[in-house]
Design brief:
There is one protein chain. By secondary structure, the chain is of the alpha+beta class. The protein has two domains: 73 residues, no CATH class; 76 residues, no CATH class. It is built from eight helices and five strands; from the N terminus they run αααααααβαββββ. Strand 4 and strand 5 form a beta hairpin. The longest helix is centred in the middle third of the chain and has 33 residues. The radius of gyration is 25 Å and the shape is elongated.
């Protein structure tokens, strides 16, 4: 087996290896995620552009891209720079008490909510139907049932379950689908109708 280290690959394809100070790329990556500086609307759809480019060398690609998108690098860098400034301000406000609150929130609250949200989904779906609900017994759980709404057995699955056909199991239950968003949960309980 032949192995090529990342540094060798960069050296071979680009010719130079850029170096950054410790933690700098992590901070810049975080700032970029928040600022969305390298999204297609700012820098173009790069996976398509690299195919479109008639040049097959790094220097040819660089020249072609910069001619096609002369402001993209500067625009992306400006967005990220602004967000780095925002992160600097946020870091100044972080103290031991805030870190402890954050750890408590992650370990206690978010873990509890993440592992117990099925009951909240059952409760909400039951309330919408003016019905009772309960969590599944151990025997019911073994059958893929997460709870009951009235007398109807239900299984609670992420929305991505719909596209995982290969993982389909035979369930003797109606499925309530959910999608986690930044704002909370979106619930599709239409199978209960």
């Amino acid at each position: 087996m032949i192995k090529i280290k990342n540094e060798e690959l960069v050296q071979e394809l680009v010719g130079e290896i850029k170096s950054f100070s410790l933690y700098a790329t992590q901070v810049i990556n975080l700032a970029n995620q928040n600022a969305q500086g390298t999204r297609p609307r700012v820098v173009g759809q790069l996976s398509e552009l690299i195919q479109e480019c008639p040049e097959k060398t790094y220097e040819g690609w660089k020249k072609w891209y910069l001619a096609k998108y002369p402001r993209a690098i500067d625009d992306a860098a400006a967005r990220i720079q602004e967000m780095v400034g925002n992160l600097k301000q946020a870091i100044q406000k972080i103290d031991p008490a805030m870190i402890r609150r954050w750890v408590e929130d992650l370990v206690l609250e978010k873990t509890f909510i993440g592992l117990r949200f099925q009951e909240a989904i059952l409760k909400k779906a039951a309330h919408a139907r003016n019905a009772s609900y309960r969590l599944a017994s151990a025997k019911e759980e073994a059958q893929g049932i997460d709870g009951m709404i009235g007398n109807v057995p239900v299984s609670i699955k992420p929305l991505t379950y719909k596209v995982k056909n290969a993982l389909r199991e035979t369930l003797n239950a109606k499925i309530i689908f959910y999608n986690k968003t930044k704002a909370g949960l979106e619930i599709d309980d239409s199978q209960l109708l």
